Amino acid sequence: MSGAANPRLFDRMSWAEARRVADILRLETVGGALLLAGAALAMAWANSPWAAAYEAVRSFRIGPRALHLELDLATWAADGLLAIFFFVAGLELKREFVAGDLREVRRAAVPVATALGGVAVPAILYLLVTSGAGGGAARGWAIPTATDIAFALAVLAVIGRHLPAALRTFLLTLAVVDDLLAIVIIAVFYTTHLSVLPLLAALVPLAIFAVLVRYRVRAWWLLLPLAAATWTLVHASGVHATVAGVLLASTVPVLHRRRTGGPGTGPGLAEHFEHRFRPISAAVAVPVFALLTAGVTLGGLDGLATALSDPVSAGILVGLVLGKPIGIVAATWLVARFTRATLGEGLAWVDVAGIAILSGIGFTVSLLIGELAFGTGGDRATHVKVAILAGSLTAALLAAVVLRLRDRAYRRIHAAETADENRDDVPDVYE
Predict the structure, then answer these.
(1) Engineered SS bond to 234: which of 117, 144, 244, 343, CB 3.0-4.6 Å?
(2) Strands (DSSP E) found in 168-317
């Protein structure tokens, strides 16, 4: 079989899909900048003379006590605001596999396989590093398995402006599938107690929500109470409340079959909800979560050294910095090996390695899983946060070195493609 007949990895997507992804990347990049600002503010605040005020804000309790929802602000951020984040991730994932380029098995195989590799290898390395550590260290095996898409895209926007769009899309899709795996892990492995009755009761508002969106009902005064009821009941069941976001997203139709005006389909409400809620997720939910979660008192260089000497910290660092890129590159190579696929035109394996290293930024979901595994108080919880911050920063710096070098090589290509546009703003390569 000739190389020309072989499928390509990270091949150019359709023009419509490319424009949609470009809009998403712009929003997530801005969200990433706000996320970094929130995390930096949290660290500065927690290590300032006003550290007690930071803890007071985090622990301030609010909510209806009758519904057992009088929670502190840090918990509201993790359980409530991140439900919005996972709702948007669920919409994106469903759209990709129903109407996006990933509806084709050939295109979907790579991000799915790489996401699996990027989860399995960090978890294995973490368990190897922490074996014999005791103290429930194994509970943190999932911490280094996540990729923070907003943080990663913010870094990529600074260091890789001329990289091929296919690589950016690959990172986005990889992170979306990664989020799905993360929510499955959270639901299955970090549910400490399960109350079946509230979980079954959650199906009632969820089903009503599904029927309404099926018939394109957009009235917020109908949908929001149903979504809140679903979230409340899932929270009461013992399953992490962010699962409610994914469940709600799974009911929203991506395509709407026209009943009048002839055959065919039109866009469903998924696109409408994504446009409405992605800015809220990127600009509010995730940055506020970072502000209320990332703050940790380092205690100087000695405190930093103590935190990083914990076997759990070492496992997180190894998982993020080594496990993620090894798992992603190995899975991609295996897909290429067994499908006889070749890289897209002009791409090299060093590009894949750079994106894989960048995927070691595991900030938001890693912090969430860290809290579920080790709680929010105590030395180990502090060590986990320090390790996540250190691992994500290390991954960002290493990726910056690799991708910055590759970015220079793509400058001429980018200039040529920009110049080769028609009056309708559609590049010739998409026609």
Answers:
(1) 244
(2) 255-257, 265-267
pLDDT, residue 211, reads 95
227 and 91 Cβ atoms separated by less than 8 Å = no
Give the separation between CA 340 and CA 378, rounded to whole angstroms. Answer: 50
The three-point CA angle 192-198-203 to 5° equals: 115
Q: Which helix (H) or strand (E) holds 342?
A: strand 342-343
Supply the CATH number for residue 371's domain.
1.20.1530.10
Q: Which residues contact 131 (CB under 8 A, 6 or more apart)?
A: none
> Alpha-carbon distance 31 to 25, whole Å?
10
Task: Count other Cβ atoms within 10 Å, centred on residue 403.
Answer: 25
23-65 pLDDT, tens digit per residue, is 676 777 788 889 889 999 999 999 999 999 999 999 999 998 8
Q: What is the pLDDT of residues 210-243, one digit of tens each?
A: 999 999 899 999 999 999 999 999 999 989 898 9
- Taking the C-alpha atoms of residue 18 and residue 11, their distance in angstroms, rounded to an integer, is 12
DSSP 3: G
In the chain, how many domains are there?
1
Query: Which residues constitute the domain of residue 163?
Result: 3-190+240-422
- pTM for this model (two decimals): 0.85
Q: Tokens standing for 359?
A: 């995927």
Confirm whether 174 is domain-assigned.
yes
Does 219 fall in a domain?
Answer: no
Cβ-contact 165, 18 below 8 angstroms: yes
> Residue 279: which residues within 8 A CB-CB, separation 6 or more?
27
One DSSP character per residue, 53-71 reads: HHHHHHH-EES-GGGT--E
Q: Is residue 154 part of a domain?
A: yes
Phi then psi for residue 217, to 5 deg, are: -75, 130
- CB half-sphere exposure, 137, CA atoms < 13 A: 19
* Residue 400 forms part of a structural domain: yes
Helix, strand, coil shares of the chain, percent, nearest 5, are 75, 5, 20
Query: Torsions phi, psi of 172, nearest 5?
Result: -60, -50
Phi-psi category of residue 377: left, alpha or beta, with phi > 0 → left and psi -120 to 50 → alpha: beta
The conformational region for residue 260 under phi > 0 = left, psi -120 to 50 = alpha, else beta, is beta
Rounded distance between C-alpha atoms, residue 348 and residue 167, angstroms: 11
Long-range Cβ contacts of 327-331 (<8 Å, 24+ apart): 327/114, 327/117, 327/118, 327/119, 327/120, 327/121, 327/122, 328/114, 328/117, 328/118, 328/174, 328/352, 328/355, 328/356, 328/359, 329/353, 329/356, 330/117, 330/121, 331/113, 331/114, 331/116, 331/117, 331/118
